[in-house]
Design a protein that fits this description.
- The protein starts with a strand and ends with a helix.
- The chain contains twelve helices and 13 strands.
- β10 and β11 form a beta hairpin.
- The protein is α+β, with helices and mostly antiparallel strands and 364 residues long.
- The radius of gyration is 21 Å and the shape is globular.
Length: 364
């Protein structure tokens, strides 16, 4: 087994094609989660144009690439998943039955530690370092939209009935409702980013779009298009005006939901929920197997999901002082955050405080 590490610009066309082929065959090989767009070469290369230290380890057997491991590396050997903080799926993309030793892989990559927070299922060498596992809800549409809608009506009859009624009411009150699954107008993307920034500030959360590199990353991915990968901007219009939008990434079989937002002036119509149903319908027509809603407990995700995947967070480490120091700094923060998120008696008052702080900031 030969492991070589490349900078993003050094990855050959043949290796990129091999990486994409592994993802394309993932559903047939019993590992559909590896087809997630956050594990695609396009995502890693885009992050590499925005952030330093992005590398790709290519594992070859008999001269043929059998696995790809993207990561970010600091000068001290601290490794992180590519796009940590905005990536919703992480890990090693590999052929069926491939086995690896995490310690050997880190050594060949020059890493003392590799940190992840959305590790895909089915990676035992990395899962051994997981400190927690969390649900990532999905919407299955591989049997068609009508089948999905029947299942939704059976498991959440009131939610389904109310959402569809709100869509009709939106049309009566605001004008013709129109959905564009793959909107190519950059102005619509800018509107979505503005809405999302305002939502982050309103709820007291850190505004991701206040970071130039995330803006640059999203714009790059919006303009990235191929048969196997694309950035998809979906917009719900009422009387020609955008009322909800979503930007996500797709491969041939998976649509990863990423940045949804809506115009608060239309909140009573739940335009975000309407948009997600329209997204499911369009995705099913495009041959998508499922929409991955991403890690995080949200009421709308519980209402829309058909099942859950699992993702993990944690660290893979070698015996190295850098690894000990990095984990010592990061572990308490992660543990505290997860405790708050998992306990309603802690999360609800914390959420109220954040929203109150958001209102104060917005009023300045």
């Amino acid at each position: 087994m030969d492991i070589r590490v490349y900078r993003p610009g050094e990855l050959s066309t043949a290796d990129r094609a091999a990486w994409t082929a592994l993802q394309s065959k993932a559903h047939l090989n019993g590992s559909p989660e590896l087809a997630n767009p956050f594990l695609s070469p396009e995502f890693t290369l885009a992050v590499g144009r925005c952030r330093r230290g992005v590398r790709i380890a290519v594992v070859r057997e008999d001269g043929e690439p059998t696995a790809f491991f993207p990561f970010q590396r600091s000068t001290t050997g601290v490794g992180r998943a590519v796009g940590l903080g905005v990536s919703d799926c992480q890990g090693l993309v590999h052929r069926p039955g491939f086995a690896w030793d995490a310690q050997d892989l880190l050594r060949e990559c020059g890493l003392a530690v590799w940190e992840f927070d959305h590790l895909v299922e089915g990676q035992p060498p990395f899962e051994a370092g997981a400190s927690g596992t969390f649900p990532s809800p999905v919407m299955d549409v591989d049997q068609g939209y009508e089948t999905y809608l029947r299942q939704l009506r059976a498991q959440s009859p009131k939610f389904t009935r109310t959402t569809l009624a709100k869509e009709r009411r939106l049309g009566r009150d605001a004008g013709e409702v129109r959905y564009v699954h793959d909107e190519r107008d950059p102005a619509a993307l800018r509107t979505l980013m503005d809405w999302k920034s305002a939502q982050y500030r309103r709820t007291g959360r850190s505004d991701r779009f206040a970071h130039a590199w995330i803006n640059h990353l999203v714009l790059q991915l919006f303009h990235t298009r191929s048969e196997s990968f694309a950035g998809i901007l979906s917009v719900l219009y009422a009387d020609g005006k955008p009322v909800a939008a979503h930007f996500g990434l797709r491969t041939e079989r998976v649509l990863a939901c990423w940045f949804p937002a809506y115009d608060p002036a239309f909140a009573k119509y739940s335009p975000g929920l309407i948009m997600h149903l329209r997204m499911a319908e369009a995705a099913a027509a495009d041959g998508i197997a499922y929409l991955d809603l991403g890690r995080g407990q949200k009421e709308y995700k519980d209402s829309l999901k058909t099942r859950e995947l699992s993702v993990s967070e944690g660290w893979v480490t070698r015996r190295h002082p850098v690894a000990v120091g990095h984990r010592a700094r990061r572990a308490p923060v992660r543990a505290l955050r997860n405790m708050v998120l998992s306990r309603p008696e802690l999360f609800e008052p914390a959420d109220r405080i954040l929203k109150r702080m958001g209102k104060i900031r917005s009023s300045r």
